[in-house]
Amino acid sequence: MLRRFRFKMLLIVIIISVVLLPFIFVSSKLSSLENEVVVYLMERGYGVDEIGNTETAFGKLPTYSVWVTFADEPQFKYQYIKSGDRVMQLSYTVTNIGRNAGKMCLSMMRGS
Questions:
Q1: What pLDDT does residue 97 have?
Q2: Count of CA atoms in the C-beta half-sphere (13 A) of 84
Q3: Alpha helix positions (H), the chain
Q4: Which H or E run contains 91?
């Protein structure tokens, strides 16, 4: 009876470990990359108050990335990745704030 209980508990622990370990690994990797990107930006002269918001992303390619929105430029988000030992900017996109500002400009131009 005790042997069967131990076997079931061991099986449960193994199953939980197999399911949770990938999530823990990805979360740890994203957190580490986010810290490295913030340090990279600070080394280039950006203050903590200038770095408005950071979001980590897990995807296909690049697998791990950090999106940064600067406080003085809320209409754009910049994507940073780590390649080898280097952190670098990969791309940027327009945020909802930027899209809405663009729509307002267009409507103002059409209305005049």
A1: 82
A2: 1
A3: 2-43, 96-111
A4: strand 86-94
Q: Which of 61, 105, 51, 59 is nearest to 83 (CA)?
A: 61
- Cα dihedral 44, 50, 54, 59 sign: negative
Q: Which residues contact residue 40 at a Cβ distance below 8 angstroms, ignoring those fewer than 6 apart?
A: 80, 87
Q: How many angstroms separate the Cα of 7 from the Cα of each of 12, 15, 45, 82, 94?
A: 9, 12, 57, 43, 54
List, for residues 31-45, the tens digit of each pLDDT value: 999 999 999 999 999
Give the tokens for residue 83: 């390649």
Strand order across the beta sheet in which 64-70 lies: 51-58, 64-70, 76-83, 86-94
**Per residue in 17-73, pLDDT tens?**
999 999 999 999 999 999 999 999 999 999 999 999 999 999 887 789 999 999 999
Separation in Å, CA 91 to CA 45, 68, 97, 110, 111: 20, 11, 18, 31, 34
